[in-house]
Amino acid sequence: MDFISTRGKIQKCGFIDAFLMGLADDGGLIIPEHIPVVPQDQLKAWEQLSYQELMFEIFSYYTNGEIPDEDLKALIHDSYATFRSPDVTPIHTINESLHVLELFHGPTFAFKDVALQFIGNLYSYVSKKQNKIINILGATSGDTGAAAIQGVRGKEGIQICILHPHNKVSKVQELQMTTVHDDNVLNLSVEGNFDDCQRVIKELFADIEFKNKYHLRAINSINFVRILAQTVYYFYAYFQVAKKQSIDAINFSVPTGNFGNIFSGYLAKQMGLPIGKLILATNENNILERFVKEGIYMPGDFLSTYSPSMDIQIASNFERYLYYLNQKDAGKVTELMNEFQQNGKLVIAEADMPQVRSDFDAHGVKGAECLQIIEKYNKESGYLLDPHTACGVAAYEACSDKNEVCVVFATAHPAKFNEALELIPIEQQFPKEIEQLFNQPQYQTVLDYSKEEIVKQLEAFYKV
Ligand SMILES: Cc1ncc(COP(=O)(O)O)c(C=O)c1O
Ligand SMILES: N[C@@H](CCOP(=O)(O)O)C(=O)O
């Protein structure tokens, strides 16, 4: 399997090089040259596999044997040994049409652990095998940062710097990142919002001289390995539900911000998983919902919501979808992305809209709806949703017919967002791992939004 860029201007490369490149060197996003299609009899055989076995099979379609089988198996095994559930991502069934896939059983209680525990181990593996310097640069609205730091803290040969928007992440998210005191971790708390943080890091990754000099590596979903690792739980969820009830296609309702989680579903569907609707669930920062409904991709005003991790206007992975929507025409993608850069807006041809609407459905939750959903499900079934998952459940209610089967992704544990949950008359408890964070000192540098200042911090921190 070769990997290429959505902008078509890099040399084809293998799995490890694609992993290390992160953002493609031509400013595009890395994708596989061809999406492999899993034969139906193979899919049937996968039904019986454990999460770890399934991940090995899926990765084997992409890794070209660059990681020997035994090493890949060990990396996968070690990555999920830190999870609190033996199933890694267990299913909680609300009723026959609604299942919740709990993606929050990893060390930082959010879905990002599923890919980032593995990526942390993979960076460590590559650093040792190839003697590579690994200087990670990431931007976070709260969860990616915590999970990435947890995935690499204290690991030899790896430095990690994470930018988060100052005072715009939940207290628990902030504590998860900033109470880590390992020498290889730098937290920059930037005055601005997540889009500002993501813009700076993308600019630095696109500056090839800087990227090469400082050996920049990505942990955000600009890195294709993040996307691939997230396809695994779509397959796993499908097989878990298929064991409980007879299903044909299944819908997925996916809390969406940077479009990474749902793009993994798009990839799983292209690989042959019988997915019905891919439902894009979001909040008031609804650029993606507006795109699916109106064909216009244009950021609105940034709004702080009950689901802060999805307070994102510019969705990094959208470019990957544009590539497939435009029949893999890298020239067209470049043109569209330049248009977006210049005019702050991108309009999809009317002729493409039937395809968009058959690929995705969408629902954006507004204001109190998020809290009402949490309260309703807690009353009716005793199950406590976090605010991002609540957006997923609201989108299930809006877009999935009751005679269809839908899996909603529970992307975080409710305790990470106690600020929102305290507004509802329900009882909540902190898991002990989160409770103990409140007594610890924090380590972070608060910065104005200034690229020069951020660069100065990185130059002082990274190993070269
Ligand atoms: C808890 C939670 N849910 C959903 C999302 C959306 O995921 P994505 O950015 O991959 O679309 C995020 C982060 O963006 C998140 O942290
Ligand atoms: N919600 C994310 C935003 C970054 O998304 P990523 O999937 O590109 O890492 C976060 O928690 O940081």
From TrEMBL:
Q: What cofactor does its activity depend on?
A: pyridoxal 5'-phosphate
Please give the CDD domains that the UniProt record associates with this protein.
Thr-synth_2 (cd01560)
- What InterPro entries does the record tag this protein with? Ser/Thr_deHydtase_PyrdxlP-BS (IPR000634), Thr_synth_N (IPR029144), Thr_synth_N_sf (IPR037158), Thr_synthase-like (IPR004450), Threonine_Synthase (IPR051166), TrpB-like_PALP (IPR001926), TrpB-like_PALP_sf (IPR036052)
- Tell me, what's a Pfam family for it? PALP
> What does the record give as EC number?
4.2.3.1
Q: What are the GO MF terms of this UniProt record?
A: pyridoxal phosphate binding; threonine synthase activity
SUPFAM superfamilies listed in its UniProt record: Tryptophan synthase beta subunit-like PLP-dependent enzymes
Known catalysed reaction(s)? O-phospho-L-homoserine + H2O = L-threonine + phosphate
Threonine synthase N-terminal domain residues are 3-80
Q: What class of enzyme is it?
A: lyase
Classification via PANTHER family: THREONINE SYNTHASE FAMILY MEMBER, THREONINE SYNTHASE-LIKE 2
| Name recorded for this polypeptide | Threonine synthase
Which species is listed as the source? Paenibacillus rigui
